[in-house]
Design brief:
alpha+beta; 276 residues; Transferase(Phosphotransferase), domain 1; protein kinase activity; Kinase-like_dom_sf; two-stranded antiparallel sheet; two-stranded antiparallel ribbon; disordered C terminus; single chain
């Protein structure tokens, strides 16, 4: 639904909807149509039955099992592909403005798609998590350079995506009371050289070490204080493909495949693709 605080009128609404109809990618939530009912303006999107990546990492939505490492890497790779498309390839390149794990939605077959893009000034899906009606982003994900300068660029999305990568690796929220921001927490832990001190305990150690290291290192590059030192989403996609290949090689070497939600104890004899 349109945010009541939005200053956008009907003409602007229809113009922005027209722009969104030109945005098509397998890793972006598809716009089905819109609703115009007197004072109520709404967008209608495809239904993503498996909820958000955030909820799946936290065990919400009646999710009892943990997403395994291979599935986590595949999901963030798919999300990265959608974001890269927004930045470089669509007819109207755009900055998402509010990249976070709750805006990465999962379909019936656990395919990840980016949501809530294009109209974030007009439509706020969760106004309580936004800093203000005019500011872009959610606490914990906001690019510190954007926060200080007010300049919103593709690198701001890259920073937010990097925070999401650290969530996927650690299973932790971006901000924990009394423990600071996730970027600082991870930097302190990896200073010991032990990647296991960083990773989500629910994974049960079932991951390829090099794959995990590479994801964390990519995330820290994305969250560099200086925006000029951050990679592009195109580069992030390449890095995550390598991370996924490393994990797939581990599974293939073990002669087993993991179900989308499992730990090492749940490995079953391989039959078909390693990661779906």
């Amino acid at each position: 639904m349109r945010s009541e605080s939005s200053s956008h009128g009907l003409d602007q609404f229809l113009a922005e909807v027209q722009n969104l109809t030109k945005v098509h990618h397998k890793n972006l939530v598809s716009l089905v149509g819109y609703c115009l009912d007197k004072y109520h303006l709404a967008l209608v999107y495809e239904y993503m039955s498996q909820g958000s990546l955030c909820d799946n990492l936290r065990g919400k939505n009646s999710v009892a099992e943990t997403l395994n490492w291979g599935t986590r890497v595949r999901l963030v790779l798919e999300a990265a592909q959608g974001l890269d498309y927004l930045h470089r390839e669509c007819n109207l390149p755009m900055v998402h403005r509010d990249v976070k794990t709750s805006n990465i939605l999962l379909g019936r077959n656990l395919q990840a798609k980016i949501a809530d893009f294009g109209l974030s000034k007009t439509f706020l899906s969760d106004s309580q998590t936004h800093i203000s009606a005019s500011a872009a982003g959610t606490a914990g994900y906001i690019d510190p350079e954007y926060y200080h300068t007010g300049r919103l660029t593709e690198s701001s999305d890259v920073y937010s995506f990097g925070v999401g990568l650290l969530e996927v690796a650690t299973g932790e929220l971006p901000i924990l009371s009394g423990q600071g921001h996730i970027v600082l927490r991870v930097k302190q832990k990896i200073a010991t050289g032990d990647i296991n001190s960083v990773t989500d305990a629910r994974l049960g150690g079932a991951y390829e070490i090099s794959s995990m290291w590479k994801v964390v290192e990519t995330a820290l590059m994305c969250t560099a204080d200086d925006a000029a030192q951050r990679p592009t989403m195109e580069t992030v996609v390449v890095q995550l493909k390598e991370c996924l290949a490393l994990e797939e090689a581990r599974l293939k070497g073990s002669g087993a495949r993991a179900s989308p939600r499992s730990d090492v104890a749940d490995l079953v004899p391989a039959s078909g693709p390693l990661v779906r």
